[in-house]
Design brief:
The structure is a single chain. This protein is mainly beta. It has a domain of about 50 residues. It has no helices and four strands. A hairpin with a 6-residue loop joins strand 2 and strand 3. The radius of gyration is 15 Å and the shape is elongated.
Length: about 80
């Protein structure tokens, strides 16, 4: 008999936020999607799932844009 997973299953639901690794090179910012975050059912926290773990720069959580194409490198976002 298969065991049911009672933990939060973020892979089955659309994420509440996308996680972006942002690095600065001069005047330009480079954004690369590295994961996603889901709100806990009780509203008191988040589950962050990273596909990679950057060692420099910063991680920014942003609301997903429904109709915008994914752009890995964009200047001027903060």
């Amino acid at each position: 008999m298969a065991r049911e997973n009672t933990h939060n299953q973020p892979s089955l639901n659309a994420p509440d936020y996308l996680a972006w690794h942002v690095t600065q090179k001069g005047e330009k910012s480079f954004w690369n999607k590295v994961g996603a975050a889901w709100t806990h059912k009780d509203g008191r926290g988040y589950t962050l799932q990273l596909e990679t773990c950057p060692i420099n720069g910063r991680i920014v959580l942003r609301l997903p844009l429904e109709d915008a194409p994914e752009v890995a490198n964009e200047a001027g976002r903060s």
